[in-house]
Amino acid sequence: MLKGILSVLLVLVTLSSAIGKPEKTTPKKEKRIPQTLSRGWGDQLIWAQTYEEALFWSRSKNKPLMVIFHLEDCPHSQSLKKAFAEDKEIQKLADDEFVILNLVYETTDKHLSPDGQYVPRILFVDPSMTVRADITGRYSNRLYAYEPADMKLCKSESCFNAKNTLLHVTRLTASLVWFVSTVLSNMQRALKFLKTEL
Description:
With 198 residues, the chain is mainly alpha-helical. It has helices spanning 2-20, 51-61, 75-86, 88-97, 148-156, 162-168, 174-177, 183-197, and strands spanning 65-69, 99-103, 121-125. It starts with a helix and ends with a helix.
């Protein structure tokens, strides 16, 4: 009889503890939008998924490759990304004339970090798969680094229109050397090299 009372008591304690606990509510997670290959650098652009794929596209389409190295949590990368994505001229040039790739990790190709691994940095690779280390930004300590202001400098000084550059410029002139420090002019310069060297 004692075993029966203890069994009933045990069942009642178990039920009362289960009923007395407040329900666990799992916080609703916000619906997360899937990440695209653009990672915010230009959702309407066609981005290569890997460095190898980008090299293949570059060679097969005979277009230069622009490789953007960045980190999602880097404030410098974020500000450059915003300026790049909002600049319609750069977006159009990237869409029409380049194979583009943005990476949040380093590649195994040591040619893509000629002066170190830092972010953000942008390098150009021609269709013959040669990394164009000669196309640099304006900083001597980070040759391939760019800032949002670099894009504005080009436009404020009446930088060559991309179309005119592709059609009429065969060699860099002294007046264009200053513009080489900007993203837009380096994109144009990479295209010019493609036209004159290949």
